[in-house]
Amino acid sequence: MSRLLPQLLHGVAVLALAAGLSQATGAQAQDGWRFQVTPYAWAPSLSGNARPRPTVPTVSFDRSFRDIFENLDGAFFLNGTARYDRFVIFGDFTWSAVSEEERIALPFAPFGFDVHGQVRQLSATLAAGYSVVDTPEVTLDLMGGVRLWHLDASVNIQAAGLAASKSDTWLDPVAAARVRWQFAPDWSAIGYADIGGFGAGSELTWQAVGTLNYRVTDSLFLSAGYRHMFLDYDRGGMQLDIDMSGPLAGVTYRF
């Protein structure tokens, strides 16, 4: 018995060490980098005003997506996240180009002019932060980052032969929050909002997104929801006051 007891203790110690290493390896795998990418389609209505230079008239936009679909020159949308333990990185990319025509009348003139305007926008948001709540049912991320804007605005008064265009690129600081609620085994809801600008680039920019998500597999999710985005920019002679809002649908791949 005196010889058997040390052997038993040695065996128990080896098993305990192996179990501890196995748990540590599993925890490390669980806490490793996790990624997801979501290409999505967004069908926004567009309203607001655009004036590339003070010397040309302001062109107003107020169209539903159905009304402006024929004038939509193109669009592309993509977002994604990367996570390590509670650290999170969020990115979103949007690009769209919209044209519009309207007829304006000049003061004290019995006739009007056809005005063609176009706004092309590219925005890329990058933020990083921490999951202040991280449970199987609810995750809340608080983040800070920047949004890169590149805008091209042009106005062409066809009958008068006058045209003006201007492009600008700038960075806006943004503060963001993202919450995910797993309310059923295969269903979840996600809400995202950010706000920024504060005069650093634009006067104000903000957006809010809400989606309902269905898990097809452990790696594939389908989403549908609504998004609103706002920009107020007035610098260097370019003036933009734009609201974009509408439904969206996307496919998420998680790996």
Can you put this structure into words, describing what you see?
There is one protein chain. The protein has 255 residues and is mostly beta strands. It contains two helices and twelve strands. It has helices at 4-30, 65-68, and strands at 33-42, 45-51, 59-63, 72-84, 87-105, 112-134, 138-157, 162-184, 187-197, 204-215, 220-235, 238-254. It has a ten-stranded antiparallel beta barrel. A hairpin with a 4-residue loop joins β10 (204-215) and β11. Mean pLDDT is 80; it is low at 1-29 and 104-112.
Q: Kindly, what is the distance between the CA atoms of the first and last residues, rounded to a whole number of angstroms?
A: 53 Å
Number of DSSP strand runs = 12
| Quaternary organization | single chain
- How are the strands ordered across the major sheet? 1-4-5-6-7-8-9-10-11-12
The shape, in one word, is elongated
What's the number of helices? Answer: 2
Helix content: 10-25%
Summarize the structure.
The protein is mainly beta and 255 residues long. It is 12% helix and 69% strand.
